[in-house]
Each structure stands twice: as C-alpha cells, then as structure tokens.
Design a protein that fits this description.
single chain; mainly alpha
C-alpha cells in the first residue's frame, strides 16, 4: 500500500439525541452525510490542536 493512501477503521459511537440532531442539521446545512460531518469536525479539531499534520 502506498504511504499516502488512507485506510479507514470502523467503530461504534454513542451520542445523545440532542447532539445527534445538531450534527444531522449541521450536516444537512453543508450538504454532507452525518458520517462525513463527524469526520470533518474531528479533522478540524485535530488540525487546530496540532495533533494532525497536514
């Protein structure tokens, strides 16, 4: 596998109803899936904290 190729891993995520509804609305507002929105949120947080190099 090339070094720059990403692999994905699956895991269960438990969210309370209020959080899930907020993410669903945010995702719809930005034309993303809920999964895509959560990935984007995590990516932004990791970059901001300096824990993800890109």
């Amino acid at each position: 596998m090339p070094k720059n190729e990403k692999t994905t891993r699956n895991f269960a995520l438990r969210l309370d109803s209020e959080t899930m509804e907020a993410i669903e609305k945010w995702a719809a507002d930005e034309f993303r899936s809920v999964n895509g929105q959560i990935q984007w949120i995590l990516d932004q947080a990791l970059k901001k904290s300096g824990r993800l190099k890109r």
